[in-house]
Amino acid sequence: MNRLPLLDSELWDRFPDPRQALAEPNGLLAFGGDLSPRRLLAAYSLGIFPWFGEHEPILWWSPDPRCVFRTETPRINRSLRRQLKGKSWRLTVDHAFDQVIHACAAPRANDAGTWLVPAMIDAYVQLHRDGHAHSVEVWDGERLVGGIYGVAIGRLFCGESMFSVESGGSKLALAALARLLRDMDFPLIDTQVSNPHTLGLGAIELPRAEFLRQATRLGQLPGLVGSWAAFTPRLIQPCAGD
Q: In the chain, fewer beta carbons within 10 Å around the N or the C end?
């Protein structure tokens, strides 16, 4: 039986080789450490992410295969265009990160709980304040109806979660994020583990070795640290062609 490594509380940049992650549960690599910004950024740069529930230790993962979107994939297709017809929604970036992450953490139907425990929320809010985590928001007037957030490492975007309280809200946020990232020379959105919803939106699975190769290369490219709010005018319009 493999023994799961415990991360050293002081060595924030030391992680086991992601290729040594367990096959069952798929991708479990290590536990412990903390959620400091420098440790989180080090983890993402290695293709590793935290994922744990309430009353659990911090768990670190690198699953095989890895689910990603190529940024040219999510689009406003006919089905989504029909959903948006007649709506006067608008899009922003980095205008309401705290609202987006709390909405992503809210209970959902047929969901036993959330992995976005308070410690995780605090950690990503700090990453946002440091200019490394970003959100796209969908508004109906002053009401937030959808959004998505994630972490940028070099030219890799690690998508964390999205939400919708109106049909089409999260799909529009994803399409807008993908278009923006494509214009900013980010070719991939990492979504970690596949599910029928993301695969239905056009996500693909990469073998972990291939994902790590691409993530390492992209993570070493010059990044865009700081608020992305100024890029709001570059977002696609809800009913415009893509």
A: N
